[in-house]
Amino acid sequence: xxxxxxxxxxxxxxxxxxxxxxxxxxxxxxxxxxxxxxxxxxxxxxxxxxxxxxxxxxxxxxxxxxxxxxxxxxxxxxxxxxxxxxxxxxxxxxxxxxxxxxxxxxxxxxxxxxxx
Length: 116
Prior knowledge:
Blueprint: E1 2-4, E2 7-9, H1 12-20, H2 23-62, H3 69-89, H4 93-115
Antiparallel strand pairs: 1-2
C-alpha cells in the first residue's frame, strides 16, 4: 500500500504504475487519482445540492410559499452554479450552457433588484 501526505492509496492502478515507473512516480500518480476521486465526490454532492436548490426555489416561488422573487433568484443562482460545475467536470455541455445562462439571468435580476 502506498501512502502520501498521510493518505492511504491502495488503488489497483498503483501496482500497475509501479511496474513501469519508479516508486515515487507511482505514488504521485496514485495520490492524484485518489485526490480526484475525493474531488469528484465533492462535485457530485454540490451538483445534487444545486439541483435541490433549483427545484426548491421554483417550487416555493410558483406555489406562492415564498412571494419574494429575490429568494428565487438567489436559489437559482447558487443551484445553477452547482449543476454547471458537475456538468463541466463530466464534460456534459448542454447542462453547462443552460445552467450558466440561468446563473447569468439570476445574477442580472439580483443586481437589478439591489439597485432599485
